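Changelog note: in this version the structure field was regenerated for every chain. One regenerated record is shown below for reference.
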Amino acid sequence: MARFAWLAIPLMVIFFSSTIMWLLKTHDSSMADILSAPARNTYSFPFAVAGIAGVWITMALNSADLGRMIRRPAGFEKKHFWHRQKLTIGGQFLGLILVGSLVIMVGMVSGILTGEWNPVDVIIKTFHDTSPAIMAAALLTIVFAQWSTNTTANLMPATYIVMALHSKLTFRRATVISAIIGLLICPWLFADKLIPFQVACSVLLGPIIGIMLADYYLVRRRTIDIDALYDEEKQAAWRLPAMSTLLVSAGAGLLTVLLIPEQGIGYSFYTAFALSVVMYPIIMRHERQEKGRVKLLNAH
């Protein structure tokens, strides 16, 4: 999959950039015309950001799995943040930010200029009769993208979760189980409700990101004891605070939707995320103080 990613990502950048320029030239338009086009619905900007977060937040949650093969430079512990993270930041920028932005832009440009929001349909209608070779190359690029990026982003994290359920589950078996579960869910049945579904995901998953960030930067102070990660007793300390924070934060996000019927759903993700970042360190501090008090009493 990694080999396909190295091929697919540059091809996708070239393909989407070329498609955008071709659409603008064909319809005698510019990006200024696209950005000034009137909106056709009532979605707010915060709602749109929350919807996009619902898509990409799953990759953020599984960054440890997706980035486990990235090699650390020699003497990384003595180097500053940029030198330690430049490979990760570069990969995130090229593979996620750049390609993700181009995907949004090509859909927006084709939708406004042609009325067709799916770039694949635009390519087929445009090049089917005039240039089959260009159409075939473009569709092959999309196939590579599905084979590499989507397989890595959507299937591999689920596979690792299934593997954690039982020690005898191999990567291959867990992949098959994950694929079967994905098919049984039938996601195509609610494709028309995709954006509200993505926002709902961001409300549920946003607090998890908040807990992870707060745990690493505010609680652990960017220092992780690797051996302690495999110690059941030491790791049990964060479970109750994390689960309590998750339930309360997600509940607050859902409550925002109920209290503000029209605009609340656009701010539910931000409510849940912000509350989790604030709440988790407070509970962890109280938990540590309580355990320290118990140990002190037991010592006497």
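Spot check on this record: The two ends are 58 Å apart (CA to CA). The longest helix spans residues 264-299.
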